[in-house]
Every structure is written in structure tokens, then in C-alpha cells.
């Protein structure tokens, strides 16, 4: 009886605090059926979705890698000479992870949340909004991982890199997907319509592509811009992934891991708070 | 034993300066169908959202199956079936897949759900449409699929928010028949509706709400008896309006005008009908008082701004 009373007090205390949108995320395994729902829809559309996801990055790679590569020749990274196509491939795969995760966590998540009201339906069952947001975040990260895997396959076929450390690049790219889906969900929570996402892509993601050392080395940038670039999530993703493509260990791994994790955790918390606010009718 | 299955106590909700739900209390007994009727914007949907723990009340409490909301929200929802005003069916899934995926949200095993799907589809008269997607279904079929989906976890209590709005009479009658069947199985239902015949047919008890406040509560027949004269004579046509001040108005207990129509409420319409026979240019309709009269008497005939 006594333990029951204490338990009731605890739930009551939790209930009283439950009105703040900033309360700690209350996550459980109930995200799994929501993730499976998205998986089941995607299975029906996987092939066209795959073509869309990898066609563009591959065009960039071929056009720039072989076209520009012929002009640029070798490029120096951390004192090592590498072909331009390897330089570009190792950066652009991070960009692909970013774009796949962002696209899924913006346009697709918004369709489910706002247009189809799928989330409202799910919340009538015993699944909380927190678990739905977690499921969407992991789902977008999974989509990024899937895209990245397909592109890695093509890169292997083209012989761009045979580094055994690519095996480690794979989970790192999943982490990159997680970071960018967390960030994208912030904007999903704020959106009134699809048009809003154009701002996110053109004002945030596209400039970041050019400031993160994907197409040219960061050394080319003015000092001030480099300071900013050092804190961008995509720069830190490239810092981890590029050495692995070159069959080397990152010279500095702790800082990029911490920066990416911080973006992911703070991003998720903010996204969840704003989504709770959106749904608090 | 007869503890209410859902109990709502002094519920209040404000949005800015607007009071949407104002000190609302009601309960549902096991096996009972409670109807909530009220004009658009009366606070019906907000009340259902608070019962689901989706909207936090400013004050008051909701208890379901003896458990407090929202502290035990998940345990409550595990025993609840919900059909919301707007269909939230998955457009990419077939009817059967919609049921399967929804059952998973309740933590049910696939085999357990698959075993239930045929009977749920049959209940919804959708057996032939098992592999059709919602886009291929009529409005009535979609609503029945929503109802079947709400039953996937075999709930004890159903919350139905305008389940028949927008349906044609055939589809509506089929929905009523199904809801009757559920009541016979012992399920409890909270139903909001704009259709008075629906409320009268299905509900054991009615709650009339307006501006978030309960203005009447009781069995449909009792409410009509309590608030209205038993008979109504509607008069319309050229010159009907002039009757309002004519001597024959003393033959009615109460006279109301709405647009071109004059409503006479009386306990015995025979003398009035005899007097009206002289006015050959007028058309008359003599009928017993119904819930619609009650509803309009309690909430007024004006169109609401938000409607």
C-alpha cells in the first residue's frame, strides 16, 4: 500500500509538471510501431524513391568529380595528396546524408503531421507525441542511411575508394543523418506550409554546402568565414568522414563528435518542445 | 460495481479571453450511450480532446476506468476507441493494412491483429474492400473503416466525434445500426452529433451544451417533456407573419417566428388547426414536438458567427 501511495505521488508530480513544453523528453519503445508504419509505406515506393535519392548526388559526383577533377588534378588534405574525385566523394556523401534526412524530416514528416493528420490518429492510441517525434527522427535518419548506402555502393563500383575504414564511415553517416533530422524537425514544428521549407534549404543548407569543405578545401576561405565554418554541423561531419575514405584516422575526432552530438541533442529537444507547443490545443 | 466508466468533473478551458468549456461535469455509466449536442463552437471537440489528454484543462478533472487523466493517459487509451471528426486513415494503406498498422500502436502482436481483421472488416461491411485504399472508398465506407479501426483493441469506451457528418441517409443508417450493435455488446459510447434523430435513436441520455456550458441533461423523451409543449404547428406561406398578432395565437401556449415560418407550441392543437382551416392560402404542418425543437429552444435559432 505504501509503495503504491508513493507511486501515485510521483505520477501526480509528473502530471503537474507535464504542462511545460520544455519538460524532459519522455521516450519509450512505443516509437517502434510508428517507425514500422513509415517503413511499410516506403516499401511500396522504395524503387522510385531510391532513384530520386541517389540520382542527383551521383550526377554531381560524375560531373564535378571527373569534369573538374581533370582540371584540378590532385588536392592536398592534411598533407596527403588525393585525387579530386575522392576529395569530392567523401564530402558529398555527407551532403547526401544531410539532404536525405532533411527532406524526409521536412516534407514527408509535415505531410504525415499536418496534411494527412496521421499523427493525430496515432495519438488517439496509447502513443505519445514524444515517441512519434522520436520515430520520425529515427526514420529520417534511416532514410539517410539507406541513401548513403546506395551511393557508397556506386562509389565502390566506380573504384573511388576501397578503404576498409568505409565500414566505420557507415555508422558515422547514420549519426550525420540523426543530427540533420533533429535540426529539420525544428522547422517542421514551425511550418505553416511546404513553402516554409524552401527557406531552410536555400538559406541554411545550400550555403552550408559551400562552407563545409565539400567542393573545395576550407583553407580557401577567408579566416572569418573559417571560424564560422568550424561550427557548422556539415563541416564537422566531413571532418570525420573524409579521412575514413582516405584510409586514415581523423586527426581530431572528439571535437566533431561533440559538436554533432550537441546539434543533435539540442536540436531534438528544441524540435520536441516546438512540436509539443504546436499540438497543445 | 456501477462506477462510471468516464467521469468529467468541473472541466474548464479558456483560449485567451474566450471560455470554450465552462464548468462542465458529466459521467457515462457502463453500457450507456451519452450524446453531446450543441451548436458549432459549443466546446464539444475540446471536451473530447481533454478526455483524451490531448488538451490540458485549466481546471477540473477527467477520470476513465477509475484512472486519472492525463497521468494514466496511456493506460486509459489502451481501453479506448476514438473516431475523430476528420478521418485520419493512412491513404497509402489498404483497409486491412490500416487496421494492422493501427493495432500495432496498441502493442498488439501481428498475429493477434490479423486474427481480428476479417471480423472487423465484416462489421464495417468492407470485406470486399479489404485490399482497397481509402482513396477508393466512399465517405460512408471511410467512416466505417475509421470505426473498425477504433475497435481494433476491443475498447470498453468509444469516443465518437460527429461520426455521421457528411454521410448520405443510407450510410448514416448503416452506421447507426452498427453503433446499436456495439451498445448491445455492452460497450459505452460518448457521441457528439448535429443530427437530432441520431441523438434520439442512439443515446440513452443527452447533454445539451452551449458556449461550453451544460444547459440541459436527461433522456431524450424526458427532455422534450420537460422543456416543450407536446405538439407543434408550423405555419408558412403568404401572410403567415400576420398570425403572430392575430387572436388565434391565444390557442397556443407559445409562438415563435423564424424567417417566413411561424411555430405554434401547444398541448392540444385541435382548436388551432380548426381556426387555421379558414386561412386557405397558408400551409400548415402539424407534428409532435421533437429534439430539434428542444435544441433550437435552448440554443436559439440564430446562425452562429463561427458556423
Description of the molecule:
The complex is a heterodimer of chains A (281) and B (307). Chain A has 281 residues and is an all-alpha fold. Chain A has one domain (26-279). Chain A has helices at 2-17, 31-72, 84-115, 118-123, 129-158, 166-190, 195-211, 223-229, 233-245, 254-279; strands spanning 74-77, 80-83. Chain A has a two-stranded antiparallel sheet with strand order 1-2. In chain A, a hairpin with a 2-residue loop joins strand 1 (74-77) and strand 2. In chain A, helix 9 crosses helix 10. In chain B, 32% of the residues lie in helices and 28% in strands. Chain B is of the alpha/beta class and 307 residues long. In chain B, helix 3 (95-105) packs across helix 4. Chain B is built from ten helices and 14 strands. Chain B has two domains: 6-221, P-loop containing nucleotide triphosphate hydrolases (Rossmann fold); 229-288, Alpha-Beta Plaits, CATH 3.30.70. Chain B has a six-stranded mixed β-sheet with strand order 6-7-8-3-9-10, sandwiched between helices. A four-stranded antiparallel β-sheet of chain B has the order 2-1-4-5. In chain B, strands 12-13-11-14 form a four-stranded antiparallel β-sheet, with helices on one face. The two termini of chain B are 42 Å apart. Classes of the chains: A mainly alpha (281), B alpha/beta (307). The A-B interface holds A 11-12, 14-15, 18-19, 30, 33-34, 36-37, 40-41, 44, 116-118, 120-128, 279-281 and B 46, 49, 52, 54-56, 68, 70-75, 77-78, 80, 82, 84, 86, 88-93, 97, 101-102, 104-107, 150, 153.
